Amino acid sequence: MFAKVESQSNGIDLIKIDNEETKIVFTNYGARIVSWKYDDNNIVLGNVVEADEFYEDNPYNFGATIGRYGGRIANATFELDGKTYVLDANNGGHNLHGGPKGIDRRFFEYKIEEQVGQVKVIFSTTIKSEDDYFPGDIDLEVIHTYDVDHKWTIEYKAVATEKTLFNPMNHVYFNLNRDNNVIDNHSISSSKLDMYLLGDDNIVKDMKPLNLVEVFNAESVQFKDIFNSESPVLKQQMTQFGGIDHPFDIGGQEMTVENKHFVLKVYTDMPNIVIYTFNDTAGWESDFNIYKAHSGFTLETQYLPNDINLLGNDAPSILEANQPFYSKTSYKISEK
Ligand code: G6D
């Protein structure tokens, strides 16, 4: 395995890692994954940056590191230790993806370590309170590791100067279809498939998720079964949001997504996974926008979005000052 770096004229570096039948590309712009290929099959979306041209500022956050808080914070406000914090509202009235100055659009420092059987790219940056209005600054390392087993691992290491919220994630979109057709034929399985329902504006309604294993009486569920379900609750949610944009409790640390060609395993120490089936693809006027609804799906490992307003002092995203934060998620691709 080896890595090579290609620098573009605009400050974007492409870090290309070759592992024979699979190849993966990261960039310093948003510490993103840019491309992941199994032979000539694209596993992830958004690889237009492969050409030596500006990475179009797309609203979908392809492959970007998102933070300091990945999901929505309702009404862009929260209370911590009796103090109210008001954030930028960049999604309706809500704060999404860490706000307009989230880390997805910044250039990270990085170094590459080539080790036996794996390559590590260690990205680092500092998130400043003055940029996003959360309390405290955070020193952050995002470590992307690719190994001989075709496994991509993301580790987050962080320390904050003050008690704050921290809930990072990666916004990669997958599509395992060789023809890149819509992902309706993919199935998901896990020891639990509990789906948190959304109220208006994509905010989690309550702490009572819908058990999909029970709804479908099956441990493996295809996306199209969810999209077309006759269950009144699911039908309402699918009609309102055009597909899945929901947090899941997967009941453990492992989830599988597959189609007839590939198996994608996700391993995470985060309690929730937000699955977004790319429901709204029309909002970006660009020649690069070749996407139709359900062209891909995300597996955003994180704490429950808006946990601070749902759970208050018990919100797991609360990070104490000077306490090291660590989290790890891996995605492993294999051919059937
Ligand atoms: C996130 O949950 C959100 C979606 O609603 C949004 O449209 C997307 O990012 C771009 O997954």
Automatic annotation (TrEMBL):
Similarity remark: Belongs to the aldose epimerase family.
Lineage of source species: Bacteria, Bacillati, Bacillota, Bacilli, Bacillales
Keyword Isomerase: yes
UniProt KW Membrane keyword: no
EC primary class: isomerase
InterPro entries: Aldose_1/G6P_1-epimerase, Gal_mutarotase_sf_dom, Galactose_mutarotase-like, GH-type_carb-bd
One annotated Gene Ontology cellular component of this protein: cytoplasm
Molecular function terms from GO: aldose 1-epimerase activity; carbohydrate binding
A Pfam family matched in the record: Aldose_epim
EC id: 5.1.3.3
Protein name according to UniProt: Aldose 1-epimerase
Record key words, sorted: Carbohydrate metabolism, Isomerase
GO biological process: galactose catabolic process via UDP-galactose, Leloir pathway; glucose metabolic process
Source organism of the structure: Staphylococcus caeli
